[in-house]
Structure formats: C-alpha cells, structure tokens
YitT family protein (Candidatus Bacteroides avicola), 297 residues
Amino acid sequence: MKTTSVIHPLPTNVAREVKDYVMIAIGMILYGIGWTLFLLPQDITASGVPGIASIVYFATGLPVQYVYLGVNVALLIVAVWQLGWKFSIKTIWAVFTLSTFLAIIQEVTKDVNLLDDQPFMACVLGATFCGSGIGIAFSNNGSTGGTDIIAAVVHKYREITLGQVMRIMDLIIITSSYLVLHDWEKVVYGYVTLFISSFVLDQVVNSARQSVQFFIISDKYEEIGKHINQFPHRGVTVINASGFYTGREIRMLFVLAKKRESTIIFRLIKDIDPNAFVSQSAVIGVYGEGFDKIKVK
C-alpha cells in the first residue's frame, strides 16, 4: 500500500513572531512620520495606496487614514481570496498599525511645521522615512498591503514581475495627482520621492533582489528539503556525496533562493537540525523558473 508522507509544521517560535510584529509596527510608524510630517504638508503625493489617500485628501480634505484603511480592506479581501490567508495576516497587522498611528501622529504634530519653504528637503526626508519603514516591514516578513497585493495577484496570472506592476501603478498614481493639484512641480517631487524611497528600501532589505545558494549537510535532509519546498517554496536538489575522512555516504542539499529568503531558510534549518552543516554564498545571477529570465542580446 502506498503511503503519503505528511509534513508536520515546525514549532512556532513565539519570541521570533513577536519580534516580527514589533518590527513591522516600528516600520509603519516610520512610514507614518515620513508621510504625514513631511510629504502631506508639502502636497507631495506618495506611491501606492497612500498616494491614492493623499490625492483624495488634497481634493476633499478627508483624513488619509480613512481612505487608506478602506482601500486596503477591499484589497485584503481580494488577497485572502486569491493568495490565501497566510500571505495576508501580517499585512493586516501592518495596515491596522499604520491606520491607527496616522491619526496619532497627525494629532501630536498638528502644530509642527517643518521645512515649509524647502519642499525638496521635505521630499528627501519623507522618502527616506517611508523607504526605511517599508524596508523594515519587508525584512520581517511583512507587507504594507496596497499595490503589493495587486502586484502579487497580477503576477500570479500574468508573465510580469512584481516590480514592473508596482512601478507602473505608482507612476500612474503620482501622475494623476496633477488632476487635483494642477502643479507639475509637485508631480516631479512625487517622482523623486518614489525614486528615493525605492533606493532606501533596497538598502534596508540589503539588496533583496540578490540570490544566494546553500549547501546543507544534515541527517535530517529529507525533512529540511520538504519544508524548503513548502515554504519559501524553493526547489531542492539532493546530491550524493561521501566524507573523505570518514568515508561515510551522505546526502547534501543544494538550494538557490532570493537573498531575502535566507533568514527563513536558516530559521527552519535551525528548528529541524541545529547541528546541520550549512554553507551560504552569494551568486551573481540565477536564471530559470522563479528567478530571472535568460537575456541574450
């Protein structure tokens, strides 16, 4: 009779999960400071759902937290339906935290006027805070929701990268602010904000687009391999090898993954076999399913 192996979930590390949620909250607070203290007073449009909320605020005066929360609730329903609950839970936490702290930050800083006559400096500082906040959230397995969700859904059904979808939507949102502000200078500041925040985001997550390779030697290689297949959903190659000194036959796992997934892989290896031998190294490029396409000029 054929038996089906069952992958049992790893024990949850409560302290690690709490740290993730705390860091996501800190990231959202930084984002809220950059958005409401530097960008909104200068009529500079942010990217993503905050950009939509900013445009509505410029046009109607409706507080940004209400529009931000409302749009994200609708998108989160789509995310749970199309991408599953696991993708959405920390996104829900990030959206709730940012929505809550937006009102608090606005109340605390209502009499604070910074850089009134220096819109470029406000743009730089606001973008730095926003990029840092999103980067911290991403580095701790979180998401700010909004265009991330739309990009993930589009990527699921179409051959287009997440970054391409997000850039297209962000450019459309920022450009559309002209319909309300009637000032191309503010639109340009919005483009600058998008560029700077994207750069800071990449620095915070430590070049997230880079890939890494792992060589893993463990007696529990089957369990480790199954969990890497399951999450972060990466392929695993089993290599037959032998120890030169001992002469013992061993199994070695070869894994290619995105650099941002390194922490996830290290965590599950430690949970399964703390004594595993692991080698990690950066690679210049990885091409194929789940990575970049081969491009030849």
Notes: The chain has eleven helices and four strands. The first strand starts at residue 211 and ends at 217.
